[in-house]
Specification:
121 residues; alpha+beta; 2 helices; 17% strand; globular
Length: 121
C-alpha cells in the first residue's frame, strides 16, 4: 500500500492571515509561506507526528468552537515558555507533566486557536 510521507501543509482560515503568519514567525519561528515557486518553505525537523482525531465534544482543545489544535514539538519546553512569556503571551503548563512521552504546555494564538507545545521524552 502506498502511504503519505507526512504533512505537506496545514491550511486554515484567519481573520487577518498576514498578521497571524507574522505572529507564528515571530514567536514560534515558523517561516511564512512563500509567495512564489522559488523560495523555500518552512522545514520541520524530522521526528514523531501524532495524527489523532478526537471526539467532537472534547474539552482538550479548550474553546469548543475551535475544530483543531496545533501541536508543535520543541527542543526545550522551559526555554520556549520563557521566550513566549517574555513576549507577553500567556502559557499554561501541564501540571501533571512530565509523562512517559514527554512534557506539555498550552497557549492560544491571537485569533484564539489552541496550540500545544510538546517536548518529547
Amino acid at each position: 500500500m502506498e502511504k503519505v510521507l507526512g504533512f505537506g501543509g496545514f491550511f486554515f482560515r484567519a481573520e487577518d492571515p498576514d498578521a497571524l503568519a507574522e505572529w507564528y514567525h515571530k514567536h514560534l519561528g515558523i517561516d511564512r509561506a512563500p509567495g512564489d515557486y522559488v523560495s523555500p518553505c518552512w522545514r520541520q525537523q524530522e521526528g514523531e507526528t501524532v495524527f489523532a482525531p478526537f471526539e467532537k465534544v472534547t474539552e482538550y482543545f479548550g474553546n469548543r468552537e475551535k475544530e483543531f489544535m496545533l501541536n508543535f514539538r520543541v527542543r526545550d519546553l522551559e526555554a520556549m515558555i520563557t521566550q513566549l512569556e517574555d513576549a507577553g503571551i500567556e502559557v499554561r503548563r501541564d501540571p501533571e507533566s512530565p509523562y512517559p512521552n514527554g512534557s506539555f504546555a498550552w497557549l492560544n494564538d491571537p485569533e484564539g486557536n489552541p496550540i500545544e507545545l510538546w517536548q518529547p521524552a
